[in-house]
Amino acid sequence: MAIVDLTHMVSSGMQVFPGDPEVEITGALSISADGAQVARLHLGSHSGTHVDAPCHSIEGGRTTSEVGLEELTGEALVLHLPHLEADAEIAWHHLAGQVPGTVPRIVLLATGWDRLFGTGEYLSHPVLSPAAAEELWSRGMRVLAVDTLNPDRTLQPGQEFSLQVHELVLGSDGLIVENVRGAAALPSRCRVGFFPLHLAAADGAPVRAVAWV
User: Fold this and answer.
1) N or C: which end of the chain has fewer CB within 10 A?
2) Residue 159 — pLDDT band, cuts 50, 70, 90?
3) What CATH number has the domain bearing residue 168?
4) Domain extent for 163
């Protein structure tokens, strides 16, 4: 089986959620001066491809310390949603034809929007309707992964702030993985793994995301 990397490379100045800490990678030590090269990293817990722990938006929810790797590895149902327009809402009727009676714990929405990562257009990504998220949850989803910045609408000027899908999934003790790269090329069923940095009691963490195909 081939391993497919589903991770955006972490680099200085990369796109982050509006208002999050900027990513900066600078030199801390050098071979010439210190005998070894070491980089200094400055980034937020939700930089690049990352996992949201329940406490990200739920008071008292689990932290990264309480999330097991087994929750983030396994068979995934990849739902292909090409040709969506900016700000489109993904309703249940968009998904129903691809969803069996029950689903594996990991569901990955492949919109192809990751092709716009790093541009202003990336902020106007499609969003999952709360009703569709609730239906997926009722069928067995426990990890929602998306190839966009957010399964909810990313706040734009004049829009009302809402995290209904976060509240549903994280509020039910599930997990969300955001900014997956290259999901549109995956088959409808494959094995995936999202491996977060082992951060103590954090609200999220960058992951190395892979698929086996």
Assistant:
1) N
2) low
3) 3.50.30.50
4) 45-212
Instruction: List, in order, residues 6 or more apart from 22 with CB less than 8 Å away.
Output: 13, 16, 42, 43
In a domain, residue 6? The reply is no
For residue 38, being part of any structural domain is answered with no
In a domain, 21, yes or no: no
Q: Which residues contact 7 (CB under 8 A, 6 or more apart)?
A: 48, 49, 180, 181, 207, 208, 209, 210
Nearest alpha carbon to residue 150 among 182, 115, 125, 116: 125
* Whole-angstrom distance, CA of residue 49 vs CA of residue 72: 13
Q: What is the pLDDT of residues 80-133, one digit of tens each?
A: 999 999 999 999 999 999 999 999 999 999 999 999 999 999 999 999 999 999
Q: Name, in order, each residue with C-beta under 8 angstroms of 15's C-beta and a sequence gap of 6 or more.
A: 117, 118, 119, 122, 149
Structural domain count of the chain: 1
Phi and psi for 170 in degrees, rounded to 5? -70, -35
**168 in helix, strand or coil?**
helix
Token pair listed for 129: 């309707």
Are 91 and 131 in contact, with CB atoms under 8 Å apart?
yes
What distances in angstroms separate CA 3 from CA 26, 179, 209, one per listed residue? 30, 18, 10
